[in-house]
Automatic annotation (TrEMBL), chains A, B:
SUPFAM superfamilies: GST C-terminal domain-like, Thioredoxin-like. GO terms for biological process: response to herbicide. Keywords: Coiled coil, Transferase. This is glutathione transferase. The keyword 4Fe-4S does not apply. Residues 91-220 form the GST C-terminal domain. Pfam families: GST_C, GST_N. It catalyses: RX + glutathione = an S-substituted glutathione + a halide anion + H(+). The keyword Transferase applies. The lineage of its organism: Eukaryota, Viridiplantae, Streptophyta, Embryophyta, Tracheophyta. Residues 2-83 form the GST N-terminal domain. Residues 125-152 form a coiled coil. InterPro entries: Glutathione-S-Trfase_C-like (IPR010987), Glutathione-S-Trfase_C_sf (IPR036282), Glutathione_S-Trfase (IPR040079), Glutathione_S-Trfase_N (IPR004045), GST_C (IPR004046), GST_Phi_C (IPR034347), Thioredoxin-like_sf (IPR036249).
Length: 222, 222
C-alpha cells in the first residue's frame, strides 16, 4: 500500500499542484476522493468552492499537511533522490532562488489569478454575479505580475533559472484555468511572448497533462 | 450529506451498473474511490482485477450490499417514487418478467461476456496470455445468447417489454467494453439487427453516457 495519501479532488487547484509534484517525483500515492452526485442538480459540486478554498489533506505517516506549496516542498525534500531532481534545485543557492519565486507565485500571482478564475471561469457557471471592481483590480495586478515575468523570462527559460522547478509548477493550475476558460485573461499571457513561450513549455509537460486528464472527468456532476 | 455511499471505481463493471441505476433513479449519493498511482509503473491498477471481481460496496444506513444486481433491485425498490419509474416495471407481472431477464443476464450473458472482456480487452494490456479454449467457448456461448436476444428483440423493443428496465441496464457495462475494445465481439452484436438496434438505444441513454464519461478518466494510471 502506498504510504502517501492525498485527500481531495483533482479539480481543485491546490490538489492539482500536489498531484503534479507527486507525478514529477514519481512517488507512489493514493488519491482518495469523495464526489457527491445530486439527484437533479446538474451543477458540479466543486464549482461551489472558491478555487483556493478547496479542501486538501496530505498524509505520509510522518506529516499531515494542508497547504499545497508546503506539501510540494515537503515532497521534493522527502523524495530528493527520485524522479525530477531539479524541482528544488541542486544546491543552496538554486534552492533559495526557487523558494523566492515560489513565494512570488503565492503572494503576487495567486491572489489575482485565483480571483479571476473564480469570477470569470466558475462564477458564470453558478450564476454568481461577478464583482466588477474585484475583477478589474485583479486584472491590473495580473498584468503587472506578467510584465515582471515577461522580463524575467526574457533572461532565462524558467522563473528560477534554466530548469523547470516547483516555482514554475505552482503556476500551472490557475494559469490552465485562465488559458482554457477565460479568453480575456488568456490574451494577457499571449501578448507577452516570453511568458507565452514559458507557458507552452511548462503546460506541455506529460506529468501536468496527466493532471489535466484527471481534471477532465466530470467531478460530481449529477 | 448524501446518505447513500458507493465505494469503488467507475472502471469496474459492477460499480458502473450501480452508478447507472443511481443516475436513472436520480438518487443523491457519494462515490468514494481510492486510486493508487505508482511511481514508474504505468499500468492502470484496475486492469489487474478480473472485471467481475472488482470491489464494490453500497451503504445507505439500512443496508450494506456488495452484489451489483441486488443493489440495483434495492435502489429501484427503495426509491420507487423518483426518477425512472419503469426500471422495475409497474406491476407484479412486469416485475416478474424484468427479474427473470435480470437473472438471464446474470446467468447466461455475464459469464461469457466477462470472460471475453477479461481476455480480449484487459489481458492484452497486461501482457497476460489469453486462454484460447476459454475464449472460443465463451464466444460460442455469447453467440447463442445473442441469438436468443435477437429473437426476443424482434418482438419487443427491450428485453422485458416496451420499456428500458434494470434487465437492459445490467447489460451496459460489459457490452460497452466489448463494443469499444473488442472488434471481433462487436461484430457479433452488429450482425444481429435487433440486438444492434437495442444496443444503440440503451447505450445512448444520457444516464449511461455519464457513467462512460466517468470511466474515461485514467483511473490509477501512473
Amino acid at each position: 500500500m502506498a504510504s502517501v495519501q492525498v485527500f481531495g479532488s483533482p479539480a481543485s487547484t491546490e490538489v492539482a499542484r500536489v498531484l503534479t509534484c507527486l507525478f514529477e517525483k514519481e512517488v507512489e500515492f493514493q488519491l482518495i476522493r469523495t464526489d457527491t452526485y445530486k439527484g437533479k442538480n446538474r451543477r458540479p459540486d466543486y464549482l461551489k468552492l472558491q478555487p483556493s478554498g478547496e479542501s486538501l489533506t496530505y498524509e505520509d505517516g510522518k506529516s499531515t499537511l494542508v497547504d499545497s506549496r508546503a506539501i510540494c516542498l515537503h515532497i521534493a525534500d522527502n523524495y530528493a533522490e527520485q524522479g525530477n531532481k531539479d524541482l528544488l534545485g541542486r544546491g543552496r543557492l538554486e534552492r533559495a532562488s526557487i523558494e523566492q519565486w515560489l513565494r512570488t507565485e503565492s503572494q503576487i500571482f495567486d491572489p489575482p489569478s485565483s480571483t479571476l478564475v473564480f469570477y470569470l471561469a466558475f462564477a458564470p457557471l453558478q450564476g454568481i454575479e461577478r464583482d466588477e471592481e474585484e475583477v478589474q483590480k485583479s486584472k491590473k495586478e495580473l498584468e503587472k505580475v506578467l510584465d515582471i515575468y515577461d522580463k524575467r523570462l526574457n533572461e532565462m527559460s524558467f522563473l528560477a533559472g534554466d530548469k523547470f522547478t516547483i516555482a514554475d509548477l505552482a503556476h500551472l493550475p490557475n494559469t490552465h484555468r485562465l488559458m482554457t476558460m477565460v479568453p480575456e485573461c488568456a490574451a494577457m499571457f499571449e501578448e507577452r511572448p516570453n511568458v507565452m513561450k514559458w507557458w507552452e513549455t511548462i503546460s506541455g509537460r506529460p506529468k501536468w497533462t496527466r493532471v489535466v486528464d484527471l481534471q477532465k472527468e466530470a467531478p460530481a456532476v449529477a
